[in-house]
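Recall the central idea of this unit: under ordinary conditions, the amino acid sequence of a chain determines the structure it adopts. In this exercise we apply that idea directly, starting from the sequence alone.
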Amino acid sequence: MPAFEGKRVLVVSPHPDDETIAAFGVIHRAARDAANVHVIVVTDGAASHDSARWPPQRLAAQRECETLAAMRRAGLGRNDVTFLRHADSGLASLNEAGKRRLVKGLRRGPMPDYVFRPSAQDYHADHKVVARACESAWPAGVRQFAYLVWPEKGGDFRPRHALTLGPVKTMKLAAIRDYRSQTGMIDDDPGGFSMDRAMISSFCPPTEVFAEQ
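Accordingly, the structure predicted from this sequence is:
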């Protein structure tokens, strides 16, 4: 993993929680060592459930609160996180103007030195679209490191960089559990997404790994 000292680090998350699942350790390290660290959350996360008690607007607001709580554990404040609020599970249907708006949103801050973002080999369509948008958002001098949340069957993801979590793993587990809407709080949608204990554990291996693009 490259050194963060003096660098501007950007973490791009397709949904509220991907930044914690894939790059909590990176964010924690960058908050300590980098010149600047920022997180961009692309979609509102409102498609995770079809709930009468948690309609999309309320669920989206809840997920933003959860993201901010998780990021506080990593050392970030409110001004260190940007929410673009694109429709969850809707990125694949963006027209050309929508894609340009997405890229513009990614570029809204200062030029980063390092970008940590999803892999185009991720199974989820939103992750693929965000990966492609990142590919076109910055010049070649910006180093991009891809992460994988939902492996695509038959994919060829080959990480070359690893960050050992050590004691930060406990903090990461707690940060994932901050996503209460994704860990069982919503109980009126049996088909809704929910991370059980085994899934949470699988998201917290000893290292976070990335493939430089």
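The helical segments are 18-33, 56-74, 96-106, 125-137, 168-177, 197-202.
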